[in-house]
Each structure stands twice: as structure tokens, then as C-alpha cells.
From TrEMBL:
Gene Ontology biological-process annotations: intracellular protein localization; neuron recognition; peptide hormone processing; positive regulation of synaptic assembly at neuromuscular junction
One GO MF term attached to the UniProt entry: serine-type endopeptidase activity
Protein name, as recorded: P/Homo B domain-containing protein
Keyword tags: Calcium, Cleavage on pair of basic residues, Disulfide bond, Glycoprotein, Hydrolase, Membrane, Protease, Serine protease, Signal, Zymogen
Top-level taxon in the UniProt lineage: Eukaryota
Major subcellular site: membrane
Cellular component annotations (GO), alphabetically ordered: Golgi membrane; trans-Golgi network
Family: Belongs to the peptidase S8 family. Furin subfamily.
Keyword Calcium on entry: yes
Keyword Nucleus: no
């Protein structure tokens, strides 16, 4: 893939002092644009002597000399990354204030929709099927909504919670948004100023962020458009997609005002084209890590991410390093009728699901739009992530002390698999239903706030790393490589490495292949839960393979770490592939988390409906085999 280099450099300066950054920038003819994230050692320098975009990496004497300065710990020329918004359908029209947009035909919906409703009176409330159809006891849609009204009835509306939308801007003047707009949660990273207003153009391409914001925090009962799920939350916007998206741009966005902002919602990512493998680079990885360790005054920033729209190209969201991260709450979509949308990507990193658009004839998401308008055609996983962010805001109001991991625990324990149709539902080793298309199921706002209110903080996260002892394993074409790695959960290691009960699991893989898309990768836990880490991607013809790529699964959440872990790689290509190395990383706790947080005190109960697709015979066999192996290892 061709790279586009900018005339900006990220520079890490020892001590991070502003005067040192200014001195070095002036000495070598750069403009110091300031710290990438305030308080960090990373600064952004621009070289106005160079073109703003170039196909070639800059090789200059000044850059070389700067790199060798004693105070410069690291520097890197910034590359413009391809990042796509995860929504569908393009707009064709313009409309008057506060009227509804039909994008595919450019006509306004009849004003007869704007009839009043008792609770609330927002004119599109009856079109918000994903929030208010749970009362339909007489048809198949009963219980098929996000149970938001129960959370509202309990008094939770997002008050005191701050959400920001990382996107192409936010129309802060929209009358259904402006009362909740929060300047402190907003910034224009593209133009480096405090105003996130989108850039207007004929196609209204930069409508995406405003649409996402309305789903979260549109005003309740004001006779305008819709009502946001967390309608009393504060809402901000980071304008960062309307320009070159570099590592520095992403890091500045993800790390903006992390002690003030509670939830970051992102409905974008690398290209969902079925051939891209990409994720956060050095600065953004650092911003994520700083966010979860120091954000929200140490409780951890909440990052909600759309899982991707590459279904038509057989893409895998495990090839997206943002949704595949342990730090993000990855959200998939379900259609109005509980089906897998045509654009959906199946992967083991997905945590849960919210509603969005589907096939022809199925309804879409209604929300705010540019020019103070409304739309009933917001689509894709772009629409799903903000719904999840709004639900999370309700849970945070119920318990502001929740950590980023507490929230993932609560989502998993309250998500509902019922009425979501997928052929791969299985039951993991602790009785929870899970699917590669839907994660643990549909998010339930009422259940989340009730559990959040009584939740006790989980133990500190531990990390256990184990390497497969052999390297350079051949994978013949048309064959499967199976590797078995026994883990004791790092029981003999330092205390912070002991993992008895699993949360996230990573298989960090380096391999070579003549065609990367011909590979499939699976990981089976000691409890017999089989995760698909990578599916075949016909469009992925790359010969680069994978280098230290961390495939992640959430499907083993709550299972015991000790036992035999099995990695399987299928090579359906025309030539041999080679596994260079494999590392198993188990994240979790040494002590079992209870049903209400804290420590477990009673026997585990089955947490959801058993699915017919569960292969119980295989599970029992695998658990028995694991126990035998554990006994053998302990007596060696």
C-alpha cells in the first residue's frame, strides 16, 4: 500500500519541557505546533519548507540532525492514514430547519409525522423503534429494544456524564443538541482550534458526527427531532476526520481532556475492504494506554468503537486494531428483525450489539442532521456505537466509580442473546451465550443501570504472557497446523502476572504467507470454547502476512485460565505458509469476580439461555483432556 507522507513530525523530547521543544524547533527551522497531548513528552513539529503531502519519505539534513539531538528520544514523520466512516447511503438534498431527510430520493417525509406524543413529545419518538417497542406484547418484536425506558423510569438520564464524538465535526448550534453541548469536551484537531463545527459543502459529507451526537444526547421533550438515550449527558465533538488523519491526529483525539471526558465514541476505522490490516500506531497506542490508566482520574476512559461495515467484502474486524483492542468496547449491529446485517463483520473481539439498519424494508436509525435537520436514515455500525455510548452513559450515572473494566463486565453480564438470529451461538465455559456476529448480545439499558448501581469494583487486571516454545512451523497448503500450549496462568510468576480467571485473551502471531487472505485462525480454550480469530478474506492478496498482530477474543470471559490452549491455522492457499512465532496473552484476575462485582462468593449460575448450537460433547471431552494434562504437568 502506498504511503502519503506529510510535512509534520512527531518528536519525543526528554522531560517534555516547552522551552526545549521551542529551542529545538527554532534551531532546525521547524514550527513547533505544541504538545500532541498536553502533559506528554510528544510534540508536533512542521517543516514549512516541505510539501504538505508527498509520496516519498523526507530525507533532509535538518531532520537527521534533529534526530541525533541529545534531548530527542524518538521522532517520526507523520503518515496520512486512510480512515473511513462506518455508515452507508449518500445524501442528495438540502432541507429547511428541523425537517426530516429522505436521503435516497431527496424528498421530505410528510409533516403528519410531527404529531405530539405524551412522553416524550419529540416528533420522531414513534420512529425510534429500537428504544420503545418493548411494550409490544402481541408480536415477535416484544422485548426487542434496548430497554431504555426502564433506565429512565429509574431516574437515569446521563446527568453528570460527559460524552464526546470523535468524527468529522459537530453542529453545536443544532437546537436539539446545543443545550447539552460541552465546549470542554470539544476540539478541532484538523484546524487546531476549539470549535468543532463541521465544514459545510454541497454534498454535506461532514454530517456524520452530528448524527452520532444526536443519538447520545438529543434533548428530551422539546418538540424537536428525537430524544437521545442519555438526554441529560453533556456532549462534545472532536473534529478529526476532515483532513489528513495521522497518528498524531488520532492520539490527540483519543487523549483529549481525558480527566474530564468519560466516554469517547468512534464510528470509523481502517478501510473495511476485506484486505486491510491496520490499527493504532505508536502515539495512539500510548494515548489509549494513558486513557485507561489515568483517564477519569484513574478509573479509565471508556472507548466505544463501531466494529466495521466490511461484511460484503468478507472483512474481519479482528484485522482492525481499534475494535480488536482490549481497551475498546467493540459494538456490532443487529437489524430491526434481529438478523445479521449485510454489512456486519463477524469476529471474536466484538463485545455486544445495538440496533441499526438492515435489508431493504427494514427500518433505520433516526437522529439529528446538519442544517438543524433530522434524518430517519442513519445506518451501519456508525449508528450502533453511539447508541452503546448513550447506554454506557446511563450506567455511569448510576455508578460514577465504575472502571473501564467494570463496564465491560457489566455489558457482558446484562447483554441479551434472545431474538438475535445467528448460526454460531455457543455457550462458553461459564454458561454465557456468545456469537462472533453479536458478541454477548443486545445491550439492555435497564439491566445495566440496575447492576451498575450495586456493582463492586473488580480486582486489578493481571497479565500472563506465555510463548510457544518452537518457532518457524510450516503450514502446508491445504492443511492445518495445530499447536498446543499448556498454561498454568503464570501461577509461579510475580503476583501481577497471575491469572486464574480470564477476561480478554490475545494470540499474538507472526507468520508469512503467499496470500494472507487464504488463512483461517482458531483458538480453543481449556473449557472448549472455540474462537475464530481470522476468517478467509478473498480480497486480501497481500504477501506481508502478520507481524506481531494481536488477535483478540472476548469469548472466554470468566473461564479458568489454566489448561491446554489450542491454536489452529488453516492454509487454503496454493503454497505453504509459515508460522514464525506465537505468544498467548491472558488478561484477567487471580480471584473470581462475583455476579455483582467484587469477589465471587457463590457457585456460578448459568447466565443465559442454552443454545442448541452448543457442542457440549466436545466441551466435556476437551475439559477432561485438559485436566489430565494439568495433572501430568504437575507431577513432572
Amino acid at each position: 500500500m502506498r504511503r502519503t507522507y506529510t510535512n509534520e513530525w512527531a518528536v519525543r523530547i526528554a522531560g517534555g519541557k516547552v522551552e526545549d521543544a521551542e529551542r529545538l524547533a527554532n534551531k532546525y527551522g521547524y514550527t513547533n505546533l505544541g504538545p500532541i497531548i498536553p502533559g506528554d513528552e510528544f510534540y508536533l513539529f512542521r517543516d514549512d519548507r516541505k510539501k504538505s503531502r508527498s509520496a516519498r519519505k523526507t530525507r533532509s539534513l535538518s531532520a537527521n540532525q534533529l534526530q541525533h539531538e541529545e534531548d530527542v528520544m524518538w521522532m517520526e514523520q507523520q503518515v496520512a492514514k486512510r480512515r473511513v466512516k462506518r455508515g452507508y447511503r449518500r445524501i442528495k438534498r438540502h432541507t429547511d430547519d428541523n425537517e426530516i431527510i429522505e436521503e435516497d430520493e431527496g424528498r421530505q417525509v410528510s409533516k403528519s409525522r410531527n404529531r405530539k406524543h405524551p412522553d416524550p413529545n419529540d416528533p420522531l419518538w414513534t420512529d425510534m423503534w429500537y428504544l420503545n417497542r418493548g411494550q409490544n406484547d402481541h408480536d415477535f418484536t416484544a422485548r426487542m429494544d434496548h430497554n431504555v425506558k426502564e433506565a429512565w423510569d429509574l431516574g437515569y438520564t446521563g446527568k453528570g456524564v460527559v460524552v464526546t464524538i470523535l468524527d468529522d465535526g459537530l453542529e453545536r448550534t443544532h437546537p436539539d443538541i446545543s443545550p447539552n453541548y460541552d465546549e470542554r469536551a470539544s476540539y478541532d484537531v484538523n484546524d487546531r482550534d476549539s470549535d468543532p463545527m463541521p465544514r459545510y459543502e454541497f454534498s454535506d459529507e461532514n454530517r456524520h458526527g452530528t448524527r452520532c451526537a444526536g443519538e447520545v444526547a438529543a434533548i428530551f421533550n422539546n418538540s424537536l427531532c428525537i430524544v437521545g438515550i442519555a438526554y441529560n449527558a453533556r456532549i462534545g465533538g472532536i473534529r478529526m476526520l476532515d483532513g489528513d488523519v495521522t497518528d498524531a491526529v488520532e492520539a490527540a483525539s483519543v487523549g483529549h481532556n481525558a480527566d474530564y471526558i468519560d466516554i469517547y465514541s468512534a464510528s470509523w476505522g481502517p478501510d473495511d475492504d476485506g484486505r486491510t490490516v491496520d490499527g493504532p500506531a505508536k502515539l495512539t497506542r500510548s494515548a489509549f494506554e494513558k486513557g485507561i490508566t489515568m483517564g477519569r482520574k484513574g478509573k479509565g476512559s471508556i472507548f466505544v468503537w463501531a466494529s466495521g461495515n466490511g461484511g460484503k467484502d468478507a472483512d474481519s474486524c479482528n484485522c482492525d486494531g481499534y475494535t480488536n483492542s482490549i481497551y475498546t468496547l467493540s459494538i456490532s449491529s443487529a437489524t430491526e428483525n434481529g438478523n445479521i446485517p449485510w454489512y456486519s463483520e463477524a469476529c471474536s473481539s466484538t463485545l455486544a450489539t445495538t440496533y441499526s439498519s438492515g435489508a431493504t424494508g427494514e427500518k433505520m436509525i433516526v437522529t439529528t442532521d446538519l442544517h438543524h435537520a433530522c434524518t430517519n436514515m442513519h445506518t451501519g455500525t456508525s449508528a450502533s456505537a453511539p447508541l452503546a455510548a448513550g447506554i454506557v452513559a446511563l450506567a455511569l450515572e448510576a455508578n460514577p466509580q465504575l472502571t473501564w473494566r467494570d463496564l465491560q463486565h457489566i455489558v457482558i453480564r446484562t447483554a441479551k442473546p434472545i431474538n438475535l438470529r445467528a448460526g454460531d451461538w455457543t455457550t462458553n465455559g461459564v454458561g454465557r451465550n456468545v456469537s462472533h456476529s453479536f458478541g454477548y448480545g443486545l445491550m439492555d439499558a435497564g439491566a445495566m443501570v440496575k447492576l451498575a448501581k450495586i456493582w463492586k469494583r473488580v480486582d486489578e487486571q493481571h497479565r500472563c504472557r506465555q510463548f510457544y516454545p518452537s518457532r518457524y512451523k510450516n503450514i502446508p497448503n491445504g492443511n492445518r497446523l495445530q499447536l498446543q500450549l499448556y498454561s498454568d496462568g503464570c501461577y509461579a510468576a510475580a503476583e501481577e502476572n497471575k491469572v486464574s480467571y480470564v477476561e480478554h485473551v490475545q494470540a499474538i502471531v507472526t507468520l508469512k504467507a503467499p496470500k494472507r487472505g487464504d488463512l483461517q485462525i482458531y483458538l480453543t480454550s481449556p473449557s472448549g470454547t472455540k474462537s475464530t480469530l481470522l476468517t478467509k478474506r478473498a480480497r486480501d492478496t497481500s504477501r506481508s502476512g502478520f507481524t506481531d498482530w494481536a488477535f483478540m477474543t472476548t469469548h472466554n470471559w470468566g473461564e479458568q485460565a489454566a489448561g491446554l490452549w489450542i491454536l489452529e491455522i488453516d492454509n487454503d492457499g496454493w503454497d505453504d505458509a509459515e508460522l514464525v512465532k506465537w505468544e498467548l496473552v491472558l488478561y484477567g484476575t487471580d480471584r473470581e469476580t462475583g455476579d455483582f462485582g467484587g469477589l465471587h462468593t457463590s457457585p456460578l449460575a448459568v447466565r443465559s439461555v442454552q443454545m442448541e448450537a452448543t457442542s457440549s460433547g466436545f466441551r466435556i471431552h476437551n475439559v477432561f483432556f485438559s485436566v489430565i494434562v494439568m495433572i501430568i504437568f504437575r507431577f513432572l
